Amino acid sequence: MAFVNTLLRTIRCSAVHTLVQEGRSLSLLKASHQLTQSRKIMLSNHVRKEEAKSEPNETLDLEEWKSILKSDIGNAEMVKTETQEDSSLNEMRELVEMWRLAGRAVPQSITTEQLQVLMELPTKTARKKYLKYLSVREVMKTNRKEKKKELKESKSKIESLDQLETKEDTPEKKNTFLLHVWDKSIDTMQRWKCVQAMKFGQPLVFDMVYEKNMSRYELENTVCQLMESEGWNRRSTDPFHIYFCSLQPYSMYHKELVKRYIGAWDNVFVTATDKSHVEMFPKEQLVYLTADSPNELKHFDHTKIYIIGSLVDRCQQTGLSLANAKRLNLATARLPLDRYLKWDVGAKNLTLDQMIRILLCLKDTGDWKKALSFVPNRKHDGFAEPAASKKRNIKNDGGMEYAASTKRNLQKNSKMYKFGASKSFIKPERTDDTSIRSTRKRWWEEEN
């Protein structure tokens, strides 16, 4: 033991001399001194009781270790997928730039969402068509902006000329006892009516279960129509309480609505829920409005809850909403278009904003002619006249006569012949004059 201690002293002294010769700092010397003091050499196999008590019992938690490893693996996979997506997006952006240099119809600026849609398209022709659609839309947008600028400039010029004219002439003071109604006050009034409708109004359900049956373009068109119908409902005198049923969070419907409303989605007076209409309301009150229903809607019922399918079907998927209603054992109805309109050839499908305008007018007035005036004129040839009823007038003698309207129809259809009117049927009149007879020569008489 004494030999080991002397050996350590010599090593320590030699280390100090070398550090001083090399010009090291004092902090390093202090650290080495502390390390050499704390070091202990145990030549015996025994462990002291104090040290055994001071050392804590270390237990390895396997589950925690596994969770840490799995999280590391998941993070690595997420990083890999993100890098792959970024690389694919960069490749697609380079392809678009190459097509632009080649002179194809490509938009000048393209977003990441549009690039993702472009990546999802399966064929090259579909990608070309989508890029052409984006470029046409971009050109239309720029043209619209230019027209707005020109209109603003022309309006400013006209206003400046008017101001010069009014300065020359002595203008009369515009004095009135009527208060000016500002747009902000109108908006607050309309919103207040929507709040009242959400509390006491009649519900109107938009069914949002048709996401898988539509393409992306059709879904965008559906969301535009939903926004228009919400606007018409807000501006009406007695609005509905609109429900967006089966609207799943972070679905395509939800993403498009949030994108179109530009941060105002949470302030829209609409009840959006992921529950179906069957879970929200009793089945006895629900009526599904579909063009394929065999039942005709004769009058508007204020106690019923009408359902409209949020669907834009360009490819005419007939019977889709009817099958959905039958699957849930719901009552169905269709608008009486054949009874009131002279319908042309084509499907009797209306847009969502047209449907809500018809229902709002029916709710306020109950007049079908006034309500169906919102159907576009290109789809029909006007309103149908009621069929002439075959009324019969009973005379005193017990004989029966048709009404004057039926007589006119019979007279038009019947052919009236006036005998003797044509020249071919006129015969010469027989005369008893003998002079005429004498002048006539008989065949047996010879000429003198």
UniProtKB/TrEMBL annotation:
<dbReference type="GO" id="GO:0008033">
    <property type="term" value="P:tRNA processing"/>
</dbReference>
<dbReference type="GO" id="GO:0052905">
    <property type="term" value="F:tRNA (guanosine(9)-N1)-methyltransferase activity"/>
</dbReference>
<dbReference type="InterPro" id="IPR025812">
    <property type="entry name" value="Trm10_C_MTase_dom"/>
</dbReference>
<dbReference type="InterPro" id="IPR007356">
    <property type="entry name" value="tRNA_m1G_MeTrfase_euk"/>
</dbReference>
<protein>
    <recommendedName>
        <fullName>tRNA methyltransferase 10 homolog C</fullName>
        <ecNumber>2.1.1.218</ecNumber>
        <ecNumber>2.1.1.221</ecNumber>
    </recommendedName>
</protein>
<feature type="domain" description="SAM-dependent MTase TRM10-type">
    <location>
        <begin position="190"/>
        <end position="382"/>
    </location>
</feature>
<keyword id="KW-0808">Transferase</keyword>
<dbReference type="InterPro" id="IPR028564">
    <property type="entry name" value="MT_TRM10-typ"/>
</dbReference>
<feature type="region of interest" description="Disordered">
    <location>
        <begin position="429"/>
        <end position="448"/>
    </location>
</feature>
<dbReference type="GO" id="GO:0160106">
    <property type="term" value="F:tRNA (adenine(9)-N1)-methyltransferase activity"/>
</dbReference>
<dbReference type="GO" id="GO:0005739">
    <property type="term" value="C:mitochondrion"/>
</dbReference>
<feature type="region of interest" description="Disordered">
    <location>
        <begin position="144"/>
        <end position="167"/>
    </location>
</feature>
<dbReference type="GO" id="GO:0032259">
    <property type="term" value="P:methylation"/>
</dbReference>
<dbReference type="InterPro" id="IPR038459">
    <property type="entry name" value="MT_TRM10-typ_sf"/>
</dbReference>
<keyword id="KW-0489">Methyltransferase</keyword>
<keyword id="KW-0175">Coiled coil</keyword>
<keyword id="KW-0819">tRNA processing</keyword>
<keyword id="KW-0809">Transit peptide</keyword>
<keyword id="KW-0496">Mitochondrion</keyword>
<keyword id="KW-0949">S-adenosyl-L-methionine</keyword>
